[in-house]
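quick one, two chains, predict together pls
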Amino acid sequence: MATALHPSVDEVWHWLSKVPDPEIPVISLTDLGVIRDVGWRDDTLVVTVTPTYSGCPATTVINLDIERALAEKGLDRVRLERQLSPAWTTDWISPEGREKLRAYGIAPPTDGTAADGILMKRIDRLSGRSNLTIACPRCGSTATEKISQFGSTPCKASYRCTECLEPFDYFKCI
Amino acid sequence: MATATLEPTVAQAALVEFLLRIGDNTLILGHRVSEWCGRGPALEEDIALANTALDLIGQTQLWLGLAGEVEGQGRSADDLAYLRDGYEFRNILLVERPNGDFGMTLMRQFVFDAWHYLLLKALEGSADRRIAEIAEKAFKEVSYHLDRSRDLVIRLGDGSAESHRRMQEALDDLWAFTGEMFVGDAADAALAEAGVIPEPQSLKVGWDEIVSDTLTEATLKPPADGYMHKGGRRGVHTEHLGYLLAEMQFLQRAYPGATW
């Protein structure tokens, strides 16, 4: 059992919910869904983190930010563990996180459309011009088109609104 | 060599071999694709290529990291990437082909992605949990790569007369390097027997299907299966790998242990 001196797991989750994502600072690490578990193992706090993309350079920064935020709360015995499975999916981005993304100008991932491995279905959806489910984060129009499957970070794609003509980032579904 | 420690079992050696093969494929292709950084034909393509390279290098860290762990000689993913010589690399010859023009790069990516996609899908069911977990992660990224390279092969193949000509040339040039993906050896057979990996040959039917559907839509003509180049999987490479390694490994060779 954790001793009374340990902050509770709930409290640690609360602290982590204040740590911003290094690339998209309007959402927190808990909004992003990369923190999979928090628990005490004797005197050490173990935080289990999953990467978004295996090569995402933000992963290292995320780990440093977690350690720094917890150190500021006086926790110096912290261990970060990497968990690959189940693989991170955009379905884990919280509803609040999605709303914050939209307000920031990034179209949030369409709910429930994470890659299911059914290739042809995805190709039909992605290569067609009928991206009806991706709404422009500025004017709300669904008349949008894909410019590129990739964007400013590994997790985003580039789109354009054909109504207000603004280009925008779309947080792609995986 | 007689020592007090146990010799690695045959299965362990086969596993290291497999992990080097898959990790070297993603490393060498990742490096090749990264050579486009700042040189793409359009900003969006430049970014897309750099992101694809990033995914592949990220996957390399996982595969080579596991290779070092299973090998048990204290070598990290970085050690394996930067401190081995050409004959120790196990990537297929396809991924060390020079980039050529944009069409050549995309065609190489497409034939690789179609195979990589099927391989990872099979590896998600690997009897080795560590391999299944990495495959699950990488599969999502690679599905995306295949969506993109397939789409571009169709658009460029069924594009202008000039883009069609270049895509057909790229396909004709690269075709003889595709056979190596489907040839197994004793290490593959041992691992397939244990349910760790699929038989390389078993991926051919699915690959043929994806490739033939795509080429039809792209109005490109698949070359006849003739002589296929092989050797990379056992360390026999073309001259192109040496130049690539000279650039990729320069820093660690000139300044051993350098970090930032």
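Chain B has one domain: 10-254.
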